[in-house]
Specification:
Blueprint: E1 9-10, E2 16-18, E3 31-38, H1 40-43, E4 49-51, E5 75-82, H2 93-102, H3 110-141, H4 146-160, H5 165-182, E6 185-187, H6 192-197, E7 201-204, E8 216-222, E9 225-229, E10 240-242, E11 245-246, H7 252-263, E12 268-272, E13 275-279, H8 282-293, H9 298-304, E14 307-314, E15 319-325, E16 338-344, H10 346-350, E17 353-357, E18 360-363, H11 366-381, E19 385-394, H12 402-405, E20 409-418, H13 425-434, E21 438-442, H14 447-457, E22 465-468, H15 469-473, H16 477-483, E23 487-491, H17 495-507, E24 512-516, H18 522-527, E25 530-534, H19 540-545, E26 548-550, H20 555-595, H21 605-615, H22 617-623, H23 649-675, H24 686-705, H25 722-740, H26 742-747, H27 755-782
Parallel strand pairs: 7-21, 7-24, 17-20, 21-23, 22-23, 24-25, 25-26
Antiparallel strand pairs: 1-2, 3-4, 3-5, 6-26, 8-9, 8-20, 9-10, 10-11, 12-13, 14-15, 15-16, 16-19, 17-18, 19-20
Helix pairs in contact: 3-4, 3-20, 4-20, 4-21, 5-20, 7-8, 16-17, 20-22, 20-23, 20-24, 22-25, 23-24, 23-27, 24-25, 24-27
Amino acid sequence: DDHRELPSVVDPFGTPILAWQQDGSAQQPIDAVDDFVQESALTGEAVAVNKIADQVLPADVPLGDRTNMVFQGTEVLQGRAQVLVTATGMQTELGNIATLLQGVEAEPTPLQQRMTQLGNTLVSSSLVLVALVVIGGGLALGWDRFTDLLEVSLSMAVAVVPESLPAVITVTLALGMQRMVRRHALIRKLPAVETLGSVTTICSDKTGTLTQNKMVVQALYTDGDQIQVTGEGYTPQGQFERAEQPLESLPPALQLLLIASLLCNDAVLQKENGDWAILGDPTEGALLSMAGKAGYSQSDWAQRLPRVAEFPFSSERKRMSVICQNLAESQLPLKAPYAAFTKGSPEAILESCTQQQGQTVTPLTGQQRRQILGQNEQLASQGLRVLGIAYKPLMTGAETVEREAEQGLIWLGLVGMMDPPRPEVKQAVARCRAAGIRPVMITGDHPLTAQAIAAALGILQPGDRVVTGRDLDQLSQPALMEQVADISVYARVAPEHKLQIVRAWQKRRQVVAMTGDGVNDAPALKQSDIGIAMGITGTDVSKEAADMVLLDDNFTSIVAAVEEGRIVYDNIRRFIKYVLGSNIGEVITIAMTPLLGLAGVPLTPLQILWMNFVTDGLPALALAMEKAEPNVMQRPPYQPRESIFARGLGLYMIRVGLVLGIVTIILMLWGYHHTHQPDYGRDSNTWKTMVFTTLCLAQMGHAWAVRSQTRLTIELNPVSNPFLLWAVTLTTVLQLLLIYAPPLRNFFDTYWLSPTELLVCIGFSALIFVWLEAEKLVARLTGRLPQ
């Protein structure tokens, strides 16, 4: 753009903020004073960033470390600045995200691919069957029976297609969605229910998902002693421990450190809706919670030592100080009318510190300074954010100048804090690994912090790598695809990096779930197989791009949703086995009728539709409510690109169809000759109703047997799936009504069966159940259990 044509920009009070000179440079200098910006929309990190105008950074510095830049869409929390606009519209970081989002194309889910394959198989199979029956039958039996052959072929075409399957799959996914909502996972796109069960990799954000999104003090270092602090969140309940043993009494230096933490603090700790929350900066809130664990109240000490002056944090000083009036009841160790309390960068504060020994103030030795700095580095290496705290007795109050108040300070100690992992996430990560799912952390936070959290949760295993966004910039997409399996933690990443990571995993034919809450996460959420947005902290953009929304922002809920997804897919395979295995038996029975020389077709199209919609449909719906197999989260995920007929399902359907067909054909032959005896006193077509009844009742036994691949039906709780019990009972009653209720008998063209004929049908039907249970028993004895 031609900067000379741009007008001067003024604030609401008319003061010029930015004016352009003829050479295109800014007329006023760019500067920043205590400018803190919330960049969570771009980086995902909740900690405000202090902007420094005169800092010079390398061109490849990660987005989260660009402290000399402010970005569109971020929030200024405090301070002031004069800025130079370097990009607008699609050239901004938000524009870059929008460009990435537009370039993402949705891929079919594994279930959609499998159902497409199933549909193609069924259509082609029905066409082949029609051709075989018509052409083969015409050649074998003569073309004078073309009408009979055509009727048989059409009946077979109707029988082979499970009309209830689309409805059953839709209802199954909807029921899975309902169960997931109870486990705090809201599904926005129905096919995502099953896709969750195929997930092989979970790329998770850190802040708020793996962690509590609450800064909590973990460790203190004071008077040469390291002290651990227990407790969760901002709740002021916990203990101070040394070597995992609670302190019986707090040392004087620690007491004074706690008082300083309360007074040099602008945050407020309060209880909201039964939970403790912070009003103000999370870092200062952590100090309030820490002091509360020792029984120290901010309001109490604010009355004892009322604040009379304050020196806010600045990037030059790297500290904040307050001056408080020392009333008589305050009981500070050094008596003085006033006291200054300071917190900030340990290195900056330590430079102007002495030490207190009893009532005497002495200089810190070089050895003591090295020891403190070494402890600071140790805490920082553990991923902790470290603050140094000091104080100084003063003879004067508000008129004391800043320079005097912050010189000659008395060192109190170090405070190490972090956003700790959620207690339940470690177990959830272990469940992921037991289930063959690879957890990966992707965060905009510092590498040391990310590494510490990942190691504590079990995400970072020995031999795994930690890489930064700068490292990713040096890798091509093929190189990243080769190395991605060795990387468990990504830190200081930009939006395009997240997209690259997801694509690298997908290139390795993995099903990827990606979590996110910010605008920056939207492209990766849309690209991933399962995009998971945060329901509490998530932006509208991230939720719109996601397939699922976590209602509690908890990683554990993702694992629970994966478990439900696996159950849904197992149930889909279960009723596909049930429906198609039964249909193959019907097709074989119908196809063999003309070859055996029997007159007519045993099943009318209306009866076949009855079996497909009612006899198949109701138990199939009930099978969708089946509970999980015991090992559902102890086995690796199924191959995402596997066929719907994989792992023996196709062979099972053919095997069951053959057995059902053979049993029904035997019954059909017996029934045909039985009803064609000269002394048979009823319609000779009654054998057709016997075939119809046997097929329907056999499927009821099939439904019970297919509940589990490995366990016998007798080992299962019969009421663990009451829906199946009701479905089998209702279907059996309806089938009997078709035989014995005259209106239904006339409509469905069935015939009345004698008690003996009905018992024969029941006996032949039970053989299917016995066969399937025997298969399980043989497989158990031979150790060839189904996968």
